[in-house]
Amino acid sequence: MAPPTAAPNAILTRAINVYALPKELLDNLIVRSIQAEAPEEEDAQPSSRSKTDAASSGPAGSLRCQACPDIGFETVEDQRAHFKSDWHRYNVKARMTGRAVSAEEWEGMVEGVSSISGSASSSSGSSDESQSKVSRLLRKAKLNANINGGGSVDSDEEAEVADRVRRAQLRTAVIWFSPSSPLPALGVPQDTQFGIHRALFPPLDTASDYLGELRRMQLSARPSIEGTDGEDRRITLLMVAGGHFAGMVVGLKPRGKGDKMEVKGAGEIKIFKHKTFHRYTTRKKQGGSQALNDNAKSKAVSAGAMLRRYGEAALQEEIRQLMSDWEEDIAMSERVFIRASTHGRKSFVGYEGAVLEKNDARIRVFPFPTRRPTLQELLRCWHELVRTKVSHLSSDALQALDDAYIASLQPRKPIIKPVTAPAPSAPSAPIKTPDELAREDRQRRLSEMIKKGRLDALRPFWEKHQSEFDNSALGLACTSGQEDIIRFFLDEIRLDPTVSIDGKKPYDLCSTRGARNVFRRTRYEHEEWYDWAVAHVPSGLSEEMEEKQDSKKAERRKGLKEKLKEREKARSEAEAAEEGEKEKERRLEEVDRQRKAAMPTMGGGGVQKLGGRDSKTLGMGGMSEEMRMRVERERRAKAAEARFANLGAK
């Protein structure tokens, strides 16, 4: 038997464009398994499918339904009408629980429900009513199954399973479709699945809406942008990473034979705009931008860091300028795919006068890994986005994949609302009695008397209220340096100097030398009163010893003053001698200068006669009378010095 040959119009032998699917395939597609489950059916929980494939049996007919058992169709119109019936909708949703019903069973189920219309021409209102009744039947069937099986309805478990199904719908990057029956004319066998990236679709509430949106996306349905004069539909691709930028505006309609190929290797892709450029922003083998490195560490001041900062600013400015230049094309784009880091997205959105708003519904991220931004990488990403994925898996294999995927989703952690503890009320100030207030006032007055040295007022006050005061008064007097108050406490009141105050002895709290001497004089006079070593008081101090110490200090101060006077006198004499030497040097320099100035005028420039004027006379020619007298005085002084030197030598 010869192997089957491929159909003349087989579509699986070539790449299938998402925006140019054959009409026959579109009319037979249904959304597959997880995606087909309606989100509002909270009571539906997935389980294994029926062991018997619905399409494996049924009456004679070339067209079958995978969801409904024992049914076949002679024409495509009959099959489409069946897809719109309540029976088919019920089986599509119930197939996840493995409880698809036949036509006879369906009739028995709807006996108690009135006016469930399976007509294809029903209005939107009746369609909503049918959906509600189908949902009620699904819940009723589920409850009956639990009761008949002896099980109980665990609402928490059902809610968890339903939540996982909803999350599975929202997290799949690819929407999978499958034909409701084989398509021999297109070469599509029974177990075939077609996948399309979710990023190409707008945000939809229910997964079943993707089929209608896929039909509206086709170029045959909308060949040009609505509201424009035949402008081609387009998508914008933008990438920035590591200082490299690549951007491209691509048309959904293939390039015509007469159109110029804008980019090498683009093939049939129609490119409206494209641009690449590069700036030095990232250190080799370091990764990350310079701005992120500055935020994580201290700001580097090297030449390379400054170049990278400049490159980042220049790259951002160039990208924003390009976005402004492409504003019209971006506005006409159905989707805008952006690959950028959180910091890099500031080049596209979030700045004053930005072409794209941050919450623009058209913005998408590439749903697959990308490489360095180049034009060739953008072309590769474009092919990956618009090329329909094709797989061939059996029903059991698909069910196993669905169950494994749902099971892999972690249970959603319950949101625990923080219980705000009541703010502790501020403790109310205790109410003081009049006696307590009076004692506090007396303590305050005592402190003021000690600090100000008011001994006359302190004596009667202490005698009257001494039972309320303790040894801390001595410590306060020591820190204040009040010598008379300390003497009063030690000699008259006899406060114990060995008692510590805040860990220190009163002697150690003294702020002046005079206050410490009061303790030493008391020790000298009354050695037997206390253990002065425990009080940290050194040897006693008598009046004679204190006077001797004062006289020694006075003599020492006097000697220091005399030494200072002698030093000042010697310094003044040295300065005067130095000034005299400087004045003498200045006079000699002035004489020499005037002598040199008079040399050219002596003798009138002719030959001098023998026996003429002597050198002294010639030397003073041209000088003023005052200068000649000064020179003569200098000569006589030098002669006198020479004579004294000769006399000393003899």
Automatic annotation (TrEMBL):
GO cellular component, as recorded: cytoplasm
Disordered: annotated segments: 38-61, 115-134, 417-442, 541-635
Domain VLRF1: 231-388
Residues at the active site: 290
Pfam families named among the record's database cross-references: bVLRF1
Annotated localization: Cytoplasm
Keyword Coiled coil among record annotations: yes
GO biological process, one term: ERAD pathway
Keywords: ANK repeat, Coiled coil, Cytoplasm, Endonuclease, Hydrolase, Nuclease, Repeat
Domain characteristics, as noted in the entry: The VLRF1 domain mediates binding to the 60S ribosomal subunit.
Family as reported in the entry's similarity comment: Belongs to the ANKZF1/VMS1 family.
PANTHER family for the chain: ANKYRIN REPEAT AND ZINC FINGER DOMAIN-CONTAINING PROTEIN 1, TRNA ENDONUCLEASE ANKZF1
The protein's name: VLRF1 domain-containing protein
Source lineage: Eukaryota, Fungi, Dikarya, Basidiomycota, Agaricomycotina
